[in-house]
Amino acid sequence: MAPSASPSPGLAVTAPVHQARVRVLHPGQGLPPAGAKPGPVDAHNVVPVWAASGKLEYSAKTFRSKMNKVLDEYLVDFPEFAEVVPWDRDQPKDIDWDTLIDTVCSQAEDVPEIDWCEPGEAAAMEALLGTKDGFLTERIKSYDSDRNYPTKPTALSGLSPYLHFGHISAQRCALEAKKRRHLSPKSVDAFLEELIIRRELADNFCYYQPHYDSVAGAWEWARKTLKDHAADKREHIYTREQLENAKTADPLWNASQLEMVHNGKMHGFMRMYWAKKILEWTSGPEEALSIAIYLNDKYHIDGRDPNGYVGCMWSICGLHDQGWKERPVFGKIRYMNYAGCKRKFNVDAYISYVKRLVAQPKKRKPEESLNSAAKYSKSEKD
Ligand SMILES: Cc1cc2nc3c(=O)[nH]c(=O)nc-3n(C[C@H](O)[C@H](O)[C@H](O)COP(=O)(O)OP(=O)(O)OC[C@H]3O[C@@H](n4cnc5c(N)ncnc54)[C@H](O)[C@@H]3O)c2cc1C
């Protein structure tokens, strides 16, 4: 948020993806109070996406230097709001919460419920600063050294669901991290790189590239190399259903898919391997990207986020990356394989960890979720 931002009410951009952007592109739909001049406010980022850069950035390197020039201006304490302007226009129409909740629950019938992540601002603050297991208070020290080890999931902050749903802002997390930098400078710097540079680079892409979820949104070199290798022979071809049900010949990939399904959050390192294998095992890059996005958005609690589209585009279409040694199927897109993972971390320990996750009793079955959702909405109204 800009300290010098105009005090006139604006329209919050929750994310620069298609649905949220409609509100910016068509202002004046009765939202701001009478007389107020509507204008966009980026409520998603530390630096408003249009102030960070006026164009689509090529890589983290080009973006980082621009961000570093303006970050101090924007990464400041939140201003006090003197008054809340009362709403004096028509009230929104009654929403049929029962039907809405039933629809959402039935769409997600085959998605297991997770219980490690309590929603809400208080829970988000607990995850950030809690005395029991808070990221900045208890776990930040190992972020620099351990964050790329899938067997050490608690080395990561675990903040992505809260950031995605706006239960906490990246600005709050960054300000609190900066206050503790003296305790663990390398880890705090690494965290800020992900939280600000990488996260806002993802927004830069989705904001300036209308094809952010399609191969058409990749750079020319990547589209060419993917096209050149689209017809290459694949060792395996799996259907979306086989992938969704973790029925591949690779136990490590199956474990990552199951971690996502049963934990609602796959480890960040595994997300790269997972998406790259989908490129290797499907009939072409378009299909690979659409399956990766479908699964990512269906099962990840932090899914449907610019970071997700960019993560899939990075893995499958080389976005924000460079060309690598040419090889079958991948062309010049960076390659990852099982042997590399085996050298990096204890693959068997990760597979065992996921097996334990899958075996854990689930809090509620889908049909109970439906009932309790209906009960909840009823008691809210009573
Ligand atoms: C194929 C693929 C799919 C992904 N899907 C999603 C998704 O749907 N939603 C999502 O939020 N992230 C996604 N990511 C990015 C990253 O893996 C997650 O943000 C991270 O694992 C979330 O866990 P955390 O909050 O514990 O991470 P931490 O390492 O603690 O990071 C803190 C925060 O920094 C940001 N961040 C971290 N890594 C990245 C990154 N590579 N790019 C952009 N921002 C980052 C996130 O906001 C994250 O919450 C994806 C990455 C890949 C390769």
From TrEMBL:
EC identifiers of the protein: 4.1.99.3
Molecular functions per Gene Ontology: deoxyribodipyrimidine photo-lyase activity; DNA binding
Tagged with keyword DNA-binding: yes
Superkingdom, natural source: Eukaryota
GO BP terms, alphabetized: photoreactive repair
CC cofactor: FAD
Catalytic reaction(s) noted: cyclobutadipyrimidine (in DNA) = 2 pyrimidine residues (in DNA)
Gene3D superfamilies cross-referenced by the UniProt entry: 1.25.40.80, DNA Cyclobutane Dipyrimidine Photolyase, subunit A, domain 3
Disordered: region residues: 361-382
Assigned keywords, A-Z: DNA damage, DNA repair, DNA-binding, FAD, Flavoprotein, Lyase
Task performed by this protein: Involved in repair of UV radiation-induced DNA damage. Catalyzes the light-dependent monomerization (300-600 nm) of cyclobutylpyrimidine dimers (CPDs), which are formed between adjacent bases on the same DNA strand upon exposure to ultraviolet radiation. Required for plant survival in the presence of UV-B light. Not involved in the repair of (6-4) photoproducts.
Family: Belongs to the DNA photolyase class-2 family.
PANTHER family attached to this UniProt entry: DEOXYRIBODIPYRIMIDINE PHOTO-LYASE, DEOXYRIBODIPYRIMIDINE PHOTOLYASE
Protein name listed in UniProt: Deoxyribodipyrimidine photo-lyase
Organism classification: Eukaryota, Viridiplantae, Streptophyta, Embryophyta, Tracheophyta
